[in-house]
């Protein structure tokens, strides 16, 4: 028999991805569908018009696996996502802590809260091709809206901390002592590299790195360049054909 906590978390996944009311997607170049499709939403390949996360059920399950593992094994540290859109994944992280009665860890919510940078602000060629503010009317979600989304679930409290601004400016001095789960959802080479350079040293052995955008070539390039530079060879595991993760061995 499932516990009350697990029933709550299973419902949270359905609500955050909105597989209950099945909101239609916003057509995009990578997912032109205009009607709700259960498989697309489960895999997180559409752009929901209403749901608070676009990562889909499979990647939410991965977040749950990683967070539950560090809680069960006592791996010290907080949880963070860099690049949060409407905040749904961070809301789910906070829900996991709530469901398990954890009061000594924080969820860090890091984002520009103004969308993606303009192409001319990037130095990496792949970023200049990919980075664009042309989608910012849909991607950009301001801080009051994200805070309000936490409030809707009754999960905005002292265990939620916000880091507004570009990662190159906020992460080097972020007041984070230790991390147990580091989740990146920032698409670009520079933002991925900035996150790994400044936050991975704070990740506890046994903690997890989750790369939501591993399927994007410039993101994967940044991951492999960083791993080669710092000699990280922990095996990368696939999540759903789009995202990937690994566990820090030391």
UniProtKB/TrEMBL annotation:
Signal peptide: none annotated. Keywords: Antibiotic biosynthesis, Magnesium, Metal-binding, Methyltransferase, S-adenosyl-L-methionine, Transferase. One of its GO terms (molecular function) is methyltransferase activity. Pathway: Antibiotic biosynthesis. One of its GO terms (biological process) is antibiotic biosynthetic process. PANTHER family: MACROCIN O-METHYLTRANSFERASE (PTHR40036). Belongs to the methyltransferase TylF/MycF family. This is Macrocin-O-methyltransferase. It comes from Streptomyces cyaneogriseus subsp. noncyanogenus.
């Amino acid at each position: 028999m499932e516990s009350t906590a697990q029933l709550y978390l299973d419902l949270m996944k359905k609500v955050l991805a909105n597989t209950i009311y099945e909101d239609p997607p916003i057509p995009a170049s990578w997912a032109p569908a205009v009607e709700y499709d259960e498989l697309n939403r489960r895999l997180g390949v559409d752009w929901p018009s209403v749901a608070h996360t676009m990562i889909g059920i499979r990647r939410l399950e991965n977040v749950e696996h990683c967070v539950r593992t560090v809680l069960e094994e006592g791996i010290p540290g907080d949880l963070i996502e860099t690049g949060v859109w409407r905040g749904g994944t961070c809301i789910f992280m906070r829900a996991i802590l709530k469901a398990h009665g954890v009061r000594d860890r924080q969820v860090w919510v890091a984002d520009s809260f103004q969308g993606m940078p303009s192409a001319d602000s990037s130095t990496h060629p792949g970023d200049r091709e990919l980075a664009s503010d042309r989608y910012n009317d849909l991607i950009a979600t301001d801080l009051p809206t994200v805070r309000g989304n936490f409030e809707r679930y009754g999960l905005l409290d002292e265990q939620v901390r916000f880091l507004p601004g570009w990662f190159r400016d906020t992460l080097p001095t972020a007041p984070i002592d230790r991390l147990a789960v580091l989740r990146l959802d920032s698409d670009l080479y520079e933002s991925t590299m900035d996150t790994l350079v400044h936050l991975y040293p704070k990740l506890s052995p046994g903690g997890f790195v989750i790369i939501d955008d591993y399927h994007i070539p410039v993101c994967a390039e940044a991951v492999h360049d960083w791993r080669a530079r710092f000699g990280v060879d922990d095996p990368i595991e696939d999540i759903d054909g789009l995202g990937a993760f690994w566990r820090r061995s030391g």
